[in-house]
Design a protein that fits this description.
CATH class of the largest domain: Alpha Beta
Number of helices: 9
Organism: Chloranthus japonicus
CATH architecture of the largest domain: 2-Layer Sandwich
Keywords: DNA damage, DNA repair, Nucleus
Oligomer: single chain
Distance between the termini: 65 Å
CATH topology of the largest domain: Heat Shock Protein 90
Number of domains: 2
CATH superfamily of the largest domain: Histidine kinase-like ATPase, C-terminal domain
GO cellular component, one term: MutLalpha complex
Bound molecules: adenosine-5'-diphosphate, magnesium ion
InterPro entries: DNA_mismatch_repair_CS (IPR014762), DNA_mismatch_S5_2-like (IPR013507), HATPase_C_sf (IPR036890), MutL/Mlh/PMS (IPR002099), MutL/Mlh/Pms-like (IPR038973), Ribosomal_Su5_D2-typ_SF (IPR020568), Ribsml_uS5_D2-typ_fold_subgr (IPR014721)
Protein name: MLH1
Strand content: 25-35%
Largest sheet: 9 strands, mixed
């Protein structure tokens, strides 16, 4: 009996975490989502064997964290075992990036908020290959995996004969896109202009309709209540922050997916803004509220624009 070399153990484990190119894409997208990204773009060459590149606009990775970024079992998402019970992120094992460095060439470019320039650094077998180099970067992180499975020749051969990982990747991204309406996704083959998946997020839609200055000053909001004696609802949306300047309130309100108006709700929000913000700019509000259908009377106005709601006061109060 011999104790296996650490690098052999790691390569075997890596082959399990990253079974095929699409598994690498899934891990990278989950990391981008965990980083709070609103835009995730994927480029793939040769079904992912030559190149997988995932770029996001998330919070980026701190310079101090780069040396251990790709070590096994390093994570920012978990510190005690108990944290697992309340974990909301998709990752927590700290294995994905490490695994990729054991079976491919990994290069990371990243910039964090408030930095003037980003850093680029490559990894091999869990460690940095050189000091991170300063470079120009746009907000977020770009991770590039080249020559996946270059050192697992059997795996590479089986995959080479089937170009189906590209369609698996497109399928995977389409599924993420359907679920994450607040994130825009795109996926294309390297060297192609046309994307095979391209979705826009709600924030992109607000940006293109109401302008960059509105979209820049929004915060995501959500609320819910599930107590029939008070109110039962789920609300999510975007609302302007203190930097937003406008003379008039814009309220885009959907209740149970119907475009409606609700004067009481609008008034209450305006009053809250006037009381909190010294210059009393009027807010921009996008809100989607889901209620039990029997709680909404859509029939109070001939054009169905104004609705009346059961427990309206409680609902407005809690929002
Ligand atoms: P895990 O997701 O389980 O923590 P990973 O190996 O996937 O492990 O990633 C390790 C760490 O690297 C993460 O915890 C996170 O802090 C950081 N990271 C990875 N990808 C990104 C990204 N796209 N943006 C910001 N941070 C990232
Ligand atoms: Mg992860």
């Amino acid at each position: 009996i011999r104790r296996l070399d650490e690098s052999v153990v790691n390569r075997i484990a890596a082959g399990e975490v990253i079974q095929r190119p699409v598994s690498a894409v899934k891990e990278l997208i989950e990391n981008s989502l965990d980083a709070g990204s609103t835009s995730i773009n994927v480029v793939v060459k040769d079904g992912g064997l030559k190149l997988i590149q995932v770029s996001d606009d998330g919070h980026g990775i701190r310079y101090e964290d780069l040396p251990i970024l790709c070590e096994r079992h390093t994570t920012s998402k978990l510190s005690t075992y108990e944290d697992l019970q309340t974990i909301k992120s998709m990752g927590f094992r700290g294995e994905a990036l490490a695994s990729m460095t054991y079976v491919g060439h990994v290069t990371v470019t990243t910039i964090t908020k408030g930095q003037l320039h980003g850093y680029r650094v490559s990894y091999k077998d869990g460690v940095m290959e050189q000091e991170p180099r300063p470079c120009a970067a746009v907000k977020g992180t770009q991770i590039m995996i080249e020559n996946l499975f270059y050192n697992l020749s059997a795996r590479r051969k089986t995959l080479q004969n089937s170009n189906d990982d590209y369609s698996k990747i497109v399928d995977l991204i389409s599924r993420f896109a359907v679920h994450h309406i607040n994130v825009s996704f795109s996926c294309r083959k390297h060297g192609m202009n046309r994307a095979d998946v391209h979705t826009v997020s709600r924030l992109d839609a607000i940006r293109s309709v109401y302008g960059i200055s509105v979209a820049r000053d929004l915060m995501e909001i959500s609320a819910s209540d599930d107590d029939p004696s008070r109110s039962v609802f789920k609300m999510e949306g975007f609302i302007s922050n203190a930097n937003h300047v406008a003379k008039k309130t814009t309220m885009v309100l959907f209740i149970n997916d119907r475009l409606v108006e609700c004067t009481a709700l609008k008034r209450t929000i305006e009053i809250a803004y006037a009381a909190t913000l010294p210059k009393a700019s009027k807010p921009f509000i996008y809100m989607s509220i889901i209620l039990p259908p029997e709680h909404v009377d859509v029939n109070v106005h001939p054009t169905k624009r104004e609705v009346s709601l059961l427990n309206q006061e409680n609902l407005v109060e809690s929002i």
